[in-house]
TrEMBL record, chain A:
<keyword id="KW-0057">Aromatic amino acid biosynthesis</keyword>
<dbReference type="InterPro" id="IPR002028">
    <property type="entry name" value="Trp_synthase_suA"/>
</dbReference>
<dbReference type="InterPro" id="IPR013785">
    <property type="entry name" value="Aldolase_TIM"/>
</dbReference>
<comment type="function">
    <text>The alpha subunit is responsible for the aldol cleavage of indoleglycerol phosphate to indole and glyceraldehyde 3-phosphate.</text>
</comment>
<comment type="pathway">
    <text>Amino-acid biosynthesis; L-tryptophan biosynthesis; L-tryptophan from chorismate: step 5/5.</text>
</comment>
<dbReference type="InterPro" id="IPR011060">
    <property type="entry name" value="RibuloseP-bd_barrel"/>
</dbReference>
<feature type="active site" description="Proton acceptor">
    <location>
        <position position="45"/>
    </location>
</feature>
<dbReference type="GO" id="GO:0004834">
    <property type="term" value="F:tryptophan synthase activity"/>
</dbReference>
<comment type="similarity">
    <text>Belongs to the TrpA family.</text>
</comment>
Automatic annotation (TrEMBL), chain B:
<keyword id="KW-0822">Tryptophan biosynthesis</keyword>
<feature type="modified residue" description="N6-(pyridoxal phosphate)lysine">
    <location>
        <position position="89"/>
    </location>
</feature>
<dbReference type="InterPro" id="IPR006653">
    <property type="entry name" value="Trp_synth_b_CS"/>
</dbReference>
<keyword id="KW-0028">Amino-acid biosynthesis</keyword>
<dbReference type="InterPro" id="IPR001926">
    <property type="entry name" value="TrpB-like_PALP"/>
</dbReference>
<keyword id="KW-0057">Aromatic amino acid biosynthesis</keyword>
<dbReference type="InterPro" id="IPR006654">
    <property type="entry name" value="Trp_synth_beta"/>
</dbReference>
<comment type="similarity">
    <text>Belongs to the TrpB family.</text>
</comment>
<keyword id="KW-0456">Lyase</keyword>
């Protein structure tokens, strides 16, 4: 069984963390992953940096630009992750834009992920129908779960379709926004969380975008299986460095 | 072989809608409605009336006698430079503002490089009384200050794009992010035949008025509808798409697409996407794209701010790959000389983008009997300081 599916069966609210590979320093990747696991994180999204991250706000844009400046590439990331499964057992997902994966070769990229022990991919700009028609077979051959996004504007019909082709969880984008910055979820967002919860989908939902504190984490996990934190973690890394990881997770999971 | 778009939104292998889910509702709504809206007689009536009375169409198809004598062939100039706001860009923004109104949108966003599309968008927003926000690279804002002033005078808010390389591609990223953040009330007026389907097709259809007019104007002047060649410069490719549109499937009309070689195709400072690009995804479209081996998008260079886009519209990627169009790359120097030459021979100062298309006559010989139509996409007023610095005028 894929590690993502196994993790989703655990009887707890899941904390998932996104970070940009190669930030703050090129060689930080493995140690960040190990420290996150040690400090109670349930799942990790490893961001493959891209020059033009059009669904991301300023924080992740800046971390991506820094990572590329530090020299991060797909090959270097795979090299850094080569032995990661000797020390880390939680689910690992690579999140990146489609173009770098297309250049690497989708099949070669998936094969490399399988070798390393990556469990899934999130590719925001790979549309559902293109995945379904062209790449589903390749992902499945290499044991990879492709995670799809829904937003407050996604129609009920489309949510059911996305649910029908999802094999792990659904990534629920909390609000109409790029990544980063919300201090607290308002009524409209809470209503949306409740609406999706009431749809009783086959796949559990994990909420991302705008989760930054213990309060927003609790608001999200009241109605979903888990929550993903990205920008807030990257800001913290920038300020406190890797040594700050225990403090960060402690504040979320109090 | 078909050269126009297929029912799935692709030109050959290029096109599609590679967008994050956050954009799906807006793009899908547009995809479902755009052809129906455009086919509505009321829409066409309003569109054509504005093109005539506000833009000043039809634009002349002018036989350039002295230029023709110099190159010993028959050269016609399609005078898009005489449109209101000085370029072909307004054909598309008129169409899209009418589209936005029918989609019930009240807030307009746009990206701009040199500022021509930004000005054309600000103009139609003023005309219709709609809120207008234009994203423009911080570096371009400094380079094209007069256009920034024009947009502001027209009531638009100009927001500097300070991410990445601070030029056109980053302005486009910022506009897309704005659309993600404002999914309900906002329409994004993309300025070229780029972006997710249906944008390339919709923009091409609004620009198709150019080749529609060429056909009847040539019939009047030459007694035949079809030229032997159509030449246009290509950045994203909207003026070329318009000039080619009604000739796409008629291979007796040869198409020439002119890209900016910058300081030379292999100089490392170029915007010749067909020569330097590989298949990739930019701004929601699969197309030819200048990028590193690792799939990071690289920054193009051209002396003309309207041609330095790292991608090219999917229609043009297909015209290149299928060899339907001949692609020629013109350097900064050759373009500048061609711009000066047209000024002196015909009394027309072209935009530097357009000057690239005119430089083809030095590169390629045409027969004396050939009828060659050049899309004179824009006027050179905005480029006076560049011309002046270059030629030490």
């Amino acid at each position: 069984m894929n590690r993502i599916n196994k993790k989703l069966q655990e009887d707890k609210n899941l904390l998932s963390i996104y970070f940009t590979a190669g930030f703050p320093n090129l060689e930080d990747t493995a140690i960040i992953i190990q420290d996150l696991e040690k400090n109670g994180v349930d799942m990790i999204e490893i961001g493959l940096p891209f020059s033009d991250p059009l669904a991301d706000g300023p924080t992740i844009q800046a971390s991506s630009a820094q990572a590329l400046k530090n020299g991060m590439t797909s090959d270097i990331l795979f090299e850094q992750l080569k032995n990661i499964r000797e020390t880390v057992s939680i689910p690992l997902i690579i999140m990146g834009y489609f173009n770098p994966i297309l250049q690497y070769g989708v099949e070669a990229f998936c094969a490399k992920c399988q070798d390393i022990g990556i469990d899934g991919l999130i590719i925001p700009d790979l549309p559902v129908d293109v995945y379904n028609d062209e790449y589903k077979a390749v992902f499945e051959k290499h044991g990879l779960i492709n995670v799809f996004l829904i937003t407050p504007q996604t129609s009920e019909e489309r949510i059911h379709f996305i649910d029908s082709i999802s094999k792990g969880f659904i990534y629920m984008v909390s609000s109409a926004s790029v990544t980063g910055g919300q201090s607290v979820f308002g009524t409209a967002q809470m209503d949306y969380f409740k609406r999706i919860e009431a749809m009783n989908l086959k796949n559990p939902q994990i909420i991302g975008f705008g989760i930054s504190t213990n309060e927003t984490f609790n608001q999200a996990t009241k109605h979903a299986k888990g929550a993903i934190i990205g920008s807030a973690f990257i800001k913290h890394l920038k300020r406190e460095g890797i040594q700050g990881i225990p403090n960060f997770t402690k504040n979320i999971l109090v | 072989m078909i050269y126009n778009i297929n029912e799935k939104g692709y030109y050959g292998q290029f096109g599609g809608a590679y967008i994050p889910e956050m954009l799906y509702p807006n793009v899908e709504d547009l995809r479902q409605k755009y052809l129906k809206v455009m086919a509505d007689p009321e829409f066409q009536k309003e569109f054509k009336a504005l093109l005539k009375d506000y833009v000043g169409r039809p634009s002349p198809l002018y036989f350039a006698k002295r230029l023709s004598e110099k190159y010993n062939t028959k050269i016609y100039l399609k005078r898009e430079d005489l449109n209101h706001t000085g370029a072909h860009k307004i054909n598309n923004t008129i169409g899209q503002i009418l589209m936005a109104q029918r989609l019930g949108k009240t807030r307009i966003i746009a990206e701009t490089g040199a500022g021509q599309h930004g000005v054309a968008t600000a103009t139609v927003c003023a005309l219709m009384g709609l809120e207008c926000i234009v994203y423009m690279g911080e570096i371009d804002m400094a380079r094209q200050a007069p256009n920034v002033a024009r947009m502001k005078m027209l009531g638009a808010k100009v927001i500097p794009a300070i991410s990445g390389s601070k030029t056109l591609k980053d302005a486009t990223n910022e506009a897309i992010r704005d659309w993600i953040n404002n999914p309900v009330d906002t329409h994004y007026i993309i300025g070229s035949v780029v972006g997710p389907h249906p944008y390339p097709d919709m923009v091409a259809r609004f620009q198709a008025i150019v080749s529609e007019e060429i056909k009847w104007q040539l019939q009047e002047q030459e007694g035949k509808e079809n030229p032997d060649y159509v030449i246009a410069c290509v950045g994203g490719g909207s003026n070329a798409a318009g000039a080619y549109y009604h000739f796409l499937e008629d291979t007796s009309v040869k198409l020439i697409a002119v890209e900016a070689a910058g300081k030379g195709v292999n100089s490392g400072e170029s915007a010749a996407t067909s020569a330097l690009g590989k298949v990739g995804v930019i701004h929601g479209s699969k197309t030819l794209l200048m990028q590193t081996e690792d799939g990071q998008i690289t920054e193009p260079y051209s002396i003309s701010a309207g041609l330095d886009y790292p991608g090219v519209g999917p229609m043009h990627a297909h015209l290149y790959q299928s060899e339907r169009a001949e692609f020629i790359a013109i350097t900064d120097d050759d373009a500048m000389e061609a711009g000066l030459e047209l000024s002196k021979l015909e009394g027309i100062i072209p935009a530097i983008e357009t000057a690239h298309a005119l430089a083809v006559f030095k590169e390629k010989a045409f027969k004396p009997t050939d009828i060659v139509v050049v899309s004179l996409s824009g006027r050179g007023d905005k480029d006076l300081s560049t011309y002046s610095d270059y030629f030490k005028l």
